[in-house]
From TrEMBL:
This is Uncharacterized protein TP-0789 domain-containing protein. It comes from Prosthecobacter debontii. Residues 109-216 form the Uncharacterized protein TP-0789 domain. Residues 1-21 form the signal peptide. Pfam families: LolA_like.
Amino acid sequence: MKRRLLLSLAALCTLSSWSYAQTTATPSAQEILGLVRRSYALQDHKMTGKLRDEDSGREEPLELTLTSSVMRFRFASSPPEIIHLDLTTSPATLWQVKPGGSSQVPLTNAADSVRGMDFNYEDLSQRFLYWKNVKLMDANARITAARIKCWLVRVTAPNTSGPYYTVDLWVHQDSGGVAKMEAYDKAGKLVKRFEVTKMWKVGEATALREMRVQSFNPLNGERKGMTYMTMDKPEKQ
């Protein structure tokens, strides 16, 4: 079985050799979410790349470090900023580091844009991976473009305090990585979509090469913006 490095929401990539793919039992929805979270423990990679806004063409260089305890996003352009996700807590804790000090990102800032792109801090915090209300919608879902077999899991927020109320996750059965995500507001309107569009082949694994992030106006369903994340081949730490 080939190992795969796939998207876990805001390009938070996961790598795993653990799989249900060759077993007859279908895991529960909670077990699938647990697989996504546990796959973080196998991380030890450093990746470089960039974000690009489709409408303006503006680019933002990015360095992403993945370890068993932290995911760190480093933006070197002015103003410099580091965002890191502490994976040793449950749920994971998102911190923002700027000149002058660091602070935990408050829930009130969850919907704020990161570097003016179509990512927000909720995307990077991945709080939805810890929500308790979870349901397996399809045990044999497929993403046609990527030709991969997934479980489709739906998670629902415990309250309406954040920017997302329902999130659908397409979890790749071979890796536990999230290959696609769609987020909806409390009225059931689509507001965000992440999807892997290109992959690198790295030895026995595959790595994220390009991801498309789209934001939508919930009032009329029109696309508000689109950001591409493109990554160079990952380096082993």
